[in-house]
Amino acid sequence: MILKLLIFCSLLFSNFAADASNSTEKVLHCQKGFKLYDRVPTDRNRNTSHWCMKLDLFSQSENLYLCPQVVEHSDVYDRPTARSVCMDYDAVITNVENQKELDDVNALIRDNNKRVAVDGVFNPKCRSFDDWKMRKFGGLCDKRKELFILEDDHTDPTFIFGKWAGEPPTASDKYKEKGDDVDIYTIAECLSLHNLAAINTTGNLKDFLCGEEPDKQVGEVPFFGVLCGCEPE
Ligand SMILES: *[C@@H]1O[C@H](CO)[C@@H](O)[C@H](O)[C@H]1NC(C)=O
Ligand SMILES: *[C@@H]1O[C@H](CO)[C@@H](O)[C@H](O)[C@H]1NC(C)=O
Ligand SMILES: *[C@@H]1O[C@H](CO)[C@@H](O)[C@H](O)[C@H]1NC(C)=O
Questions:
Q1: Could you say which residues form the signal peptide (predicted)?
Q2: For ligand 1, what atom is nearest to the CA of residue 22?
Q3: For the residues 97-116, what does the mean pLDDT come to?
Q4: Ligand 3 mean position to 21 CA, how many Å?
Q5: I want to staple 203 with a disulfide (CB 3.0 to 4.6 A). Which of 24, 142, 163, 232 is the partner?
Q6: Per the domain annotation, does 200 fall within a domain?
Q7: 14 Cβ inside 6 Å of ligand 2
Q8: Domain span at 112
């Protein structure tokens, strides 16, 4: 009798456990310092429904930093450096996918009054116009389409590519060649998010010249960090 009861109980329990594990969604965690965001799965983000993000602050490098020799906020304008900062957390350089994520990042940008390096590089296919020079931004190379592409595919860029701080290239040269009225642009290779208040536009996405110290360029804002992302556990 007791044995039967035990068997009954364990059956009941295993059924309950199976039900529970199927009906309750797995609880997802981000590693320390990262925040969990819900995303809408799309083709362009490879059906990502959850994504962890961290905004690394060079200016508050109290722990975890493996590169304390880096001078405060001076290095993430360099894309390989920005990537490796994220790699220290087993993360990748990422970008925001919706208003909530952008609001969170913008709050930090306003606090620091500097900018953040985000995922997005000038599409090599658009170089074909003439190396770094472009006359038109239409078709595939439209600023809302694939003028820039993300190196990590957990983010659908549709939202952020609608948040340009003006016409790209926002940070590079525009000139005319002799006997030609058409504006020619040289493209800045990487993307960053800027302080909205300072630039006073509807968006704060800008391109910038990767690898060149902003302090040495006219009107360029220094960086305070890079946006890193990873999958939850
Ligand atoms: C729960 O999931 C397991 C494995 O995915 C499956 O074998 C089992 O039939 C499911 N149980 C119920 C009650 O859906
Ligand atoms: C995303 O999900 C849809 C529907 O389940 C599927 O057809 C598609 O292959 C998935 N795409 C990727 C990149 O996994
Ligand atoms: C910012 O934009 C607002 C609204 O378009 C305008 O009234 C204001 O003058 C602008 N400020 C600067 C500093 O450009």
A1: 1-17
A2: 1
A3: 86
A4: 54
A5: 163
A6: yes
A7: no
A8: 73-228
User: For the chain, how many structural domains are there in total?
Assistant: 1
Instruction: Decide whether any atom of ligand 2 lies within 6 Å of the 40 Cβ.
Output: no
Per-residue pLDDT, averaged over 130-145, amounts to 71
pLDDT for res 152: 94
In a domain, 90, yes or no: yes
CATH, residue 95: 3.10.100
Q: What is the dihedral of CA 104, 152, 122, 201, to 10 degrees?
A: -10
pLDDT computed for residue 64 by the predictor? 31
Whether 47 lines ligand 2, by a CB cut-off of 6 Å, is yes
Question: pLDDT tens across 202-220, in order?
Answer: 788 988 888 777 666 666 7
In a domain, 6, yes or no: no
- Cα–Cα distance between 221 and 218 in angstroms, integer? 9
Q: Which are the contacts of 52, defined by CB distance < 8 A and separation ≥ 6?
A: 30, 31, 34, 35, 36, 37, 91, 229, 230, 231, 232
C-alpha–C-alpha distance, residues 119 and 108, integer Å: 17
> Does residue 55 belong to any structural domain of this protein?
no
